[in-house]
Specification:
The complex is a heterodimer of chains A (about 650) and B (about 375). Chain A has about 650 residues and is an alpha+beta fold. Chain A is built from 22 helices and 21 strands. The termini of chain A are far apart. Chain B has 14 helices and two strands; from the N terminus they run H-H-H-H-E-E-H-H-H-H-H-H-H-H-H-H. Classes of the chains: A alpha+beta (about 650), B mainly alpha (about 375).
Chain lengths: ~650, ~375
Amino acid sequence: MKIRRPIKDTRDESSLFRRRAWTGFALILLCLCLLISRFVFLQVMRHSEFVTRSQNNSVKPRAIPPARGLIYDRNGVLLADNVPAFRLEVVPEQVKDMPALLARLGRVVPLGQDDLDAFDKLLATSRRFDSVPLKMHLTEDEMDRFAVNRWRFPGVDVVPYLTRRYPLGALLAHVVGYVGRIDASDLERLDPTLYQGTNHVGRSGIERSYEDVLHGTPGYELDEVNADGRIQRVLETHPPIPGKNLYLSIDVRIQKAAEAAFEGRPGAAVVLDPRNGQVLAMVSIPTFDPNLFVDGISQADYSALTDDPDKPLFNRALRGVYPPGSTIKPFLALGGLEEGIRRPQDTVLSTGQFCLPGQSRCYRDDTRGGDGTVDMVTAIEKSTNTYFYKLALDMGIDRFSAWMSRFSFGRKTGIDLLGESEGVLPSRAWKAAHSRQPWYPGETVIAGIGQGYWAVTPLQLGHAVATLAGHGVPYAPRLVMAIQGSADARPQPLANPPSGPSLVTSPADWDVINAGMQAVIAGGTGKGMGVGFPYPIAGKTGTAERYSRTTDAYNTNKSDAYLASRHRAWFEAYTPANDPQIAVAVVLEAAAWGKDAGPIVRKILDAWIATKGAAAPKDIPLPSAPATAGAASVPVEDLPAQTSSSAEAIP
Amino acid sequence: MISILQVRLRRFLQRVLTRPRIDLPLALGLFVLATVGLVTLYSAGDGNLALVGGQAARFVLGGALLLLISRIPPSALRSWTPWLYVGSTALLVLVALLGEGRGAHRWLNLGVMRFQPSELLKLTMPMMVAWYLHARQLPPRWKDIVVVGLLIALPATLIAKQPDLGTALLVAAAGAFALFLSGMAWWRLGVLLGALGGMVPVAWHVMHQYQRDRVLTLLNPESDPLGNGWHIIQSQIAVGSGGIFGKGWEHSTQSRLDFLPEHTTDFIFAVFSEEFGLVGVIALIALYVFIIGRCLWIAMEARDTYSRLLAGAIGMSFFVYVFVNGGMVAGMLPVVGVPMPLISYGGTSAVSLLVGFGVLMSIHANRKMHE
C-alpha cells in the first residue's frame, strides 16, 4: 500500500526553520569567533614581530657616500677634484628578466661591452636589493632619453654621484695616481659598511696609499620607500664625514719643468728637499691620462697603454730599477772616510787597468791610460774607476753593503706610496739567496763602480743624494706634506722625523765629498752644467748598461744612437752646495752620456730657483764658469764603450 | 494599454519613495557599514576622491535598486524564480562560449557596459533552491537533496570553470544554506559532507595550477615570498602591525607604500585592520553579526517557506563573504577573489549585495502578522 504523501505542515516547517536558523547563527558566531581569535593572534601575540617587519618593509636605510678628500700641491694648486655626474643604476630585485631589460635599455642609452662586463661582475657579488651601477658619466642626451623612457624600466634609475677629475691630467698620473670603479675583487677586501654607496676607490699613487684618509665616513638616511623601492620621504639624515684634503709637497711648477725637460724621452726624475725628505717633484716618462681610469677605462684605451713598448703605466721613479753606475761613487768615498779606510789625501795611481793580485782578470778605467795619480776629490771629479775598485776591495763586501744599506739601497726608502721596488744591493746574503756560487772578490771590485748586481730605483738614488746633501741625515721621502680635516680648517703638517742617525760623524768628511761633487760640475764630468746658476751645484754623473756585453773588446762604435740604445744616463745633484735645499736624481733611458741627463737636472734646478723668486739669497757667490767650457772639451766619464762593467776579465 | 502601464509604473515608483517598505535596523546597519566602507576606501585609496565617489555612486544605485525591489512582493519574486534561474544560467553558458576578460572568462559585453552574469546567480541560486523546496515536503529527502544538488552544481561548475573560485563558492554556499535551513536531517548532512570530503582529491586534480599554488602557498607562505606568498605575507604584516588599537586612519604604511596588493579591493580589510587594530576588527565583525542576525530574524518572521529559506540563505551567505575574506586577509584561508561586503571597492558586488537586501526588505514588509 502506497503511503500518501503527507500534507505540508507549514507550522512545523516554521519551527524547524527557526531551530535551524538559530543553529546556523550559532555556527556563524563560532566561525567568526575563530576568525577573531586569528586576528588576536596576529595583532596581539605577534604584534611586535609584525611591527618590525612592517618597518623593515617600508623604512630602508640608504648610505650617503662621503665626498672624497681633495688633493692639492704645496701651493694649493688643485690636483684631484670631485665633479658631479650622473650614472645609471639597476636594482636586480626589481628586474624579472635582466638580459631582456639590458637589451631594451641598450636601445635607449647605448651600453658598451665594457659597461656590461663590469655590471655582470658586480651583479654576481652584490645583494639582490642593492643598486648596481650600470653606466657611469651619462651625457645630457642619454639622461634625457632615459627620462622619457623611464616608465619602461622599473628598477632602473639615474643617480647623481661625485666622480673624480684630475685637472692636470697626465702631469701627476704617477704621483697622485687615480681612482677606479669598485669592482668585484675590491668588494672582497673593502669594509662594506664604509664603502656603501661609494663607487670609487684609490687604485694607485696617493689615491691608493692615502685611501683611508681621503675616503671619509659614509653617512646614512632613513628613507620611507614603497614596494618599488622608490623613496617617498626621508625620515632621518645623518650626514657623511667627508674625506680629508691632502697637501702634497709637490710643486707643480717644478713638476712641469721636469716633465718638459725630458721632451718625451723615457726616464724618471725625483726631486727631494734634503732637509725634510719632502718630494718636490717625481716624474716618470712617458705618462698617461689618469682621467681615463676613473669611470672605467675602455678596453681599447687600456690596450693602447699596455701595448706601448715604453710602458706609460709603469712608474719608473718608484719601480724602475737600473744599475746605478758611477753615481754611487760619492757614497762609497764617504764610506771610505767614515770607516777610516781612506784619508782624503791618499792617492791611487790610475793606469787604465786594475788587476786583482794573483789573477789575470783586470778591470778597466774610463780613460785609456788612466787618470794618473788621483786623490779622493779628483777621483770623484774624474770618476776614476781604479780608485773605487781599490776602495771597494779594501772595504770588503760586507762593510760595503752594510754602509750602502744605510742610504736605503737594496731596501725600501719608506716613501708614502705603495709598490716601491727594493732594487738590489750587492751583498753576500743577496747572492746566497739567488745563486749557489760563493762571493768572488771581482764582484766586490765592480760593485765599487755601481755595476754587477746593483739595481736601484730613481727614488732610491734621489733619497741617497738627499741624505748626502742633508749632511747624512736620512729622511723617508714624503709626498703628503699636510692634511686638512675640513675645508675651513688649517692644514695640519705631517711630522717626518729623520729615519735614522746621521751617516756623517765628521763634518770634514762631508766637506771632502761635497768638494769632489762640486768639482764634477765645475770642471769634471758634469762640466758646464752649472753655468749661470746662482748657487754652487754639487753633482755626479753615471752610466748604466742596459745589456751585458758579449765580448770584451773595446767597442769602437761611438755613434750616439747606437750607444743610446744600449745605455742609460744618470745624473744626481744638489744645491746650494754649501747649504743644500734641493736634491735631484734623474735617469734618462736610451741615453749614453751624463751630459744628456745633466740639462734635465739643470732645468729642474732652474724651475726650483724660479719658485724662490726674490727670496733667493743674493750673498752666495756665483761659481766662476770656465771661459773655455764647451761641449767638446767636456771630459766624458763613463764612456760606455770603455767602461768595464762586467766581471769578465780583459784578455 | 501603454498609458495604463505608465500610470501603474508611476504609482509604483511613487510608493517606493513615499512609503518605503524598509526594516529600519537593517537599513541602519547597512548605512553604517557603507559609511565605514567609504571611510576605509578613502584611506586605502590614498585619498583618491574619484575612487570614493565611484563607490558612493554604486551605493546610491544599489540603494535605489534596494528600494525598488523592496516593493516587489515575495510572491511575485517566487513566480519569476524559475525564469530568473534559467535566464542567469543561460547567460553563464553564453559567457563560457563568448565571454571576455583578462585570463578568466567572466564578463559579458553588453555594448554599453560589461557585466558579470555570475553575480546574478548569487541571488537567483538561493531563490531557485527556496522555490524548489517551497513546494516539497520538509525536511527534504534524498530525492530532493539530489535535485537541489544538481541545481547548485550546474551553475557553480560553470562559474568555477571561468575560473572564478570565489564566486562559485559564494553561489554554491547560498544554495547549500537554503538546503541547510530547510531542515535537512543532520545525518544526511553528515553523509553529504563526507562525500564532499571524498571529492577533495578529485577537485585538486581538476583545479588550475594557479589555484593549487594558492592553497600550497597558504600552507607555507615564506616558500615564495615574492611570488604567491607575497599577498599573504604582506597582508599578515599589515594586520599584525596594526596591533590592538591600530595605526590610525590614513596611517597604514603597508598599503600607502604599495606593499599590500589589491589594497582597495580584496585586501582592504587588511588596511582596515592595520589602521583600526583589533578593536576596529571586533567592532566591524560585530556589525556584520548584527546584520546577519537581523537577516535571520527577518527570515524567521517570514510568511512562507520560500521567503524564509531565501532570507536565511541571503543572510548566511553574507557571513561567507566575511569569513572567507577575513580568513584570507589573516592568512587562514587561501587567496580567493571574495570581497569584504560593502567595504571592498568594486561595482557589481556592492550592487548585487544591496539588491539581495532589497529582497530581504520585501520579505520583511510581507512578514507574518502576529496575532
